[in-house]
């Protein structure tokens, strides 16, 4: 029995599900959540979903986005709790114990009470949710296909990152056959930026600095968010633009938020972004990771 089949067996025995997304939700966790809500409802299950942070406006087009509960209570209400793309306990809903954890981060803490399906070779957790949906016996429809395509495409750089595999492309092809329209989804995600977001990105790009011969650094301050009117979620994807700097094998972007610094790390070649982030108790993937540092920006 595959991991997807084990998870499907548990879910089919449960009438009520709760899907948990990670803090600062991105396309992968939200696409997974949306797809599971769609699949569960098709199977007659009572499904709710959410996470600590709000759903970014960029992803408001996803099916069931209006049902997403931000700042969700830790009370499970007897539901089967499924964490999707959540690599650590403190990145889910504090106090809520998932029965099932489905994730592709190598650094996952394996905190699921019953099943921990961790597949670091998957380009996105969406690839794994695709397998779960099929194991549930749920036919793919346009809603599920759209959500999973967003999940996968956003986490593999629209099929250009090194984590893109033949399996990734095969799954994407099946999602297109089921109703996902790549051109439409690309337009929704890449041609909807607000002036505030563009101004924020401009400030960050203007600060890019080389660090030594093979690294680059930039940062965003709390004043940048306040003065531009941009949201914290508007930083998604910005680190990938910084990686375009010639010769930079390591790129770091620091965002000053609330009581800490949130650092995004990207690398290529022999350098591990995950190893760099781990020095500050962070985690992620070999070439894409992050961490939080509890220091003022001047010291961080």
Describe the structure.
The protein has 300 residues and is an alpha/beta fold. The protein folds into 2 domains: 3-189, inorganic pyrophosphatase (n-terminal core) (Alpha-Beta Complex); 195-293, Roll (Diaminopimelate Epimerase, Chain A, domain 1). 34% of the residues lie in helices and 20% in strands. It has 10 helices and 12 strands. The strands form 2 sheets. It has a 6-stranded parallel β-sheet with strand order 3-2-1-4-5-6, covered by helices on one side. It has a 6-stranded mixed β-sheet with strand order 7-8-9-10-12-11. A hairpin with a 3-residue loop joins β11 (283-284) and β12. α3 (125-135) packs antiparallel against α4 (142-155). The radius of gyration is 19 Å and the shape is globular. The protein starts with a helix and ends in a 7-residue tail after the last strand. The model has no long low-confidence stretch (mean pLDDT 93).
Largest sheet: 6 strands, parallel
The strands making up the biggest β-sheet line up spatially as 3-2-1-4-5-6
Radius of gyration: 19 Å
Q: List SSEs in N-to-C order.
A: HEHEEEEEHHHHHEEHHEEHEE
- Helical element count? 10
Mean pLDDT: 93
CATH H-level homologous superfamily name of the largest domain: inorganic pyrophosphatase (n-terminal core)
Distance between the termini: 48 Å
The top level CATH class name of the largest domain: Alpha Beta
* Helix content percent band: 25-40%
Low-confidence stretches: none
CATH-defined fold name of the largest domain: inorganic pyrophosphatase (n-terminal core)
| Estimated share of beta-strand residues | 15-25%
Whole-number count of domains: 2
Shape: globular
Assigned CATH architecture of the largest domain: Alpha-Beta Complex
Counting helices, strands and paired strands, the structural category is alpha/beta
Number of separate strands: 12
